[in-house]
Amino acid sequence: MLESEFVLHGMRVIAKNMKTILLLIRFVKGLLSVPAYALLDQMKKTICVLEDSQEILDIISIVLEEENYDVRGFGTVSEFLSKFASFEPVICLLDVMLPDGSGLEVCNIIKKSVQTQHIPVVIMTANSGMDKMKDTCEADDFISKPFDIDDLSRRINLLAHKN
């Protein structure tokens, strides 16, 4: 069984059981107070996530749903491109390496379209060549994997409430 690793409130967590990780995230997030701006937003804002790892998608969904976002997950580039615009997302969170393409290519498609260029794009990658990636697409932010859950929430909230 593969180990999963992430950072939760400054603590590096490694576990073989994804269910345990998800329960831990829900427990810790439940202990935290809801940010004041989340209380002001009556309608949930949608975030579209393109991630082929179901475990990572589950973690991201739990974290962002706790922040009062509606999370729409996609496992392939083709599925994402055919559906994401209909959800009118406030942010697109894209993995780089995908089975049928690249999140960098998807970022460029989003940013070149008049209808979607206003949507902030965040690129997630385990690749160490992040500086090179910044030259190939116009993403609004880049997050390296494994990511810190608090940092992910903070960055997403900043971008979502900036618009």
UniProtKB/TrEMBL annotation:
<feature type="domain" description="Response regulatory">
    <location>
        <begin position="46"/>
        <end position="160"/>
    </location>
</feature>
<keyword id="KW-0597">Phosphoprotein</keyword>
<dbReference type="InterPro" id="IPR001789">
    <property type="entry name" value="Sig_transdc_resp-reg_receiver"/>
</dbReference>
<dbReference type="InterPro" id="IPR050595">
    <property type="entry name" value="Bact_response_regulator"/>
</dbReference>
<feature type="modified residue" description="4-aspartylphosphate">
    <location>
        <position position="95"/>
    </location>
</feature>
<dbReference type="InterPro" id="IPR011006">
    <property type="entry name" value="CheY-like_superfamily"/>
</dbReference>
<protein>
    <submittedName>
        <fullName>Response regulator</fullName>
    </submittedName>
</protein>
<dbReference type="Pfam" id="PF00072">
    <property type="entry name" value="Response_reg"/>
</dbReference>
